[in-house]
Design goal:
With about 220 residues, this protein is α/β, with parallel strands linked by helices. It is built from eight helices and eight strands; from the N terminus they run E-H-E-H-H-H-E-H-E-H-E-E-E-H-E-H. It has a single domain, classed as Rossmann fold (3-Layer(aba) Sandwich).
Length: about 220
Amino acid sequence: MIDKIVVMIGPPGAGKGTQARQLAEHYHIPQISTGDILREMARLETKLGLELKTIMASGELVSDEVLASVIQTRTTQPDCIGGYILDGYPRTPSQARTLEKLARGQGKDVRLVSVEISRDALMRRLTGRRTCSKCGEIYNIYFRPTRQEGQCDLCSGELTHRADDKEETVGTRLTAYEQKTAPLIQYFREIGRLVGVNGERPVAEVFTEICAALEN
């Protein structure tokens, strides 16, 4: 247990999800996805659940106030006593301030862990991906090429290049991520709660650095 609230962010392909899963297993704390909570609570016959069901059915965005209530309800459960990892919240400085208030009430500190990686490295990771159309195995022409070009090592299936992994699409996704997260990163930097790690190193090294920062 680390008795902290860990917010994980990172651009597509940075390895944020891998690090979050390892942290959850290592510290025996829950990894909480905002989207999963909303869907789970919308199924409950509670006042909040019925409100969420109506909002989601109409296609409207869940307000900051309702979202804060959802997060508070979920994080008061016993499995969150020793800390927890948030995925998908907060997304704005306003939501971050709300989370800070919640954290004080729970007697916890918040840390924003930002898995950082250069744009060039991300482009190679994402645009280089090739997927077997037969068994689904994933390769990378730069880091994990197949023995025979265009053919899966496991089943000899044909490799495909997904539209999501094309250079133009990846570039658009990365630009959108940078614009969306810049204010949040700046907010946590200003209040001294930002943990930036170099995501270009081996997974184990990145994990060790995150743990050392969280345990200080």
